[in-house]
Amino acid sequence: MPELPEVETVRRGLAPAMEGQAILLAEVNRPDLRWPFPPNMAARLMSRTVLRLRRRSKYILADLDNGETLLIHLGMSGRMTVSGDPLGRFEHDHPAAQKHDHVVLHMANGARITFNDPRRFGAMDLLQTATADRHKLLSVLGPEPLGNGFHEQHLTEAFRGRRSPVKSVLLDQKVVSGLGNIYVCEALFRAGISPRRRADGISRIRVAALVPTIRQVLNEAIEAGGSSLRDFRQADGELGYFQHSFDVYGRAGEPCHTPGCGAPIRRIIQSGRSTFYCAQCQR
DNA sequence: ATTATGACCTGTAAGC
DNA sequence: TGCTTACAGGTCATAA
Questions:
Q1: How many whole angstroms separate alpha carbon A171 and alpha carbon A173?
Q2: Catalytic residue list of A
Q3: Residue nearest to nucleotide C9 (CA to C1')
Q4: For strand B, is any atom closer than 7 Å to the CB of A118?
Q5: Does the CB of A58 sit below 7 A from strand C?
Q6: Is A42 exposed, middle or buried (0-12, 13-18, 19+ CB in 10 A)?
Q7: What pLDDT is recorded for position A241?
Q8: Which nucleotide has the shortest C1'-to-CA distance from A73?
Q9: Where is the active site (predicted)?
Q10: What is the mean pLDDT of residues A4-32?
């Protein structure tokens, strides 16, 4: 479930197993995911030490000790799991290889990092750390919603002249990077804004309120991801499995959570994707 | 330039 | 039990 909070949860789960560790072996089991892997990816990863794991939007960036950075995107169905940590913080044993285990990193501490992605919408690339911001996939991204570059003035300017529904505009990664279908729906519910409203028709006050609302939704989700991380350490090594109690997402026909409302949550299609909202509370 | 649509893939659940 | 259909957390290329 990779939107920003899930990717951040995965990053936090991977970091203690990967940071400061050398990659002894990289198994690359197919030539591509969404795009071809970079040339000689397995060889370029082997014997490299991961200096640190970063996140930019929905991308995980692993800075290596040779000036290259491994870029990872989980797409729709990508998972990264840790197994076999010798300290016993993760799994005791390595599970049997699964279908769609496309890349497996064997770390010097005995941990094994497995990238599994049935739909193969994910991606990996290698880029120069020093110029990472100029990478084709990263250079087009808008500000981090939890960063200093995301503020009222930015959203106001981003919404100006945008006649599309605010739902679609918030999904545009150039406007703000890291939101996906779930958290846009949830943020608009909390902000009381109809997803159908034109972005350029939203009042100044409500645009201003949207900024802290988005931050709050994401921060709460990251917190909840943190708790599922603790489960993962005790359990089966599954990482990025995120449970959350949503107000609207996936709740079509169920009663609105707003006290005294109870109206049925609606599901509509916008730009080909499901939108969930309460027609009573969101105007 | 903005906007909407199809495309990329597989797996799962629901309906008949 | 089978078969068919709808749908899924993303985002890129294309065309209107």
A1: 6
A2: 2-3, 58, 273
A3: A1
A4: yes
A5: yes
A6: middle
A7: 44
A8: C10
A9: 2 (schiff-base intermediate with dna), 3 (proton donor), 58 (proton donor), 273 (proton donor)
A10: 95
Output the average pLDDT for chain A: 91
Domain A4-134: assigned CATH number: 3.20.190.10
What share of chain A has pLDDT > 70, as a percent? 90
* CB A242 within 7 Å, strand C: yes
For the domain spanning A152-277, the CATH number is: 1.10.8.50
Exposure string of A101-133, with b = 16+ CB inside 10 Å and e = fewer, is bbbbbbbebbbbbbbbbeebebbbbbbebeebe
Annotated binding site of A: 100, 119, 162
pTM: 0.94
pLDDT: which is higher, A240 or A100: A100
- Looking at residue A235, its pLDDT comes to 37
The whole-angstrom separation of Cα A150 and Cα A205 is 16
DSSP one-letter string for A18-58: HTT-BEEEEEE-SSBSSSBPPTTHHHHHTT-BEEEEEEETT
Q: Residues A224-275: pLDDT tens digits?
A: 876 555 444 433 444 444 555 799 999 999 999 999 999 999 999 999 999 9
Q: What ranges do the domains of chain A cover?
A: 4-134, 152-277
- Interatomic CA–C1' length for residue A4 and nucleotide C3, angstroms: 38
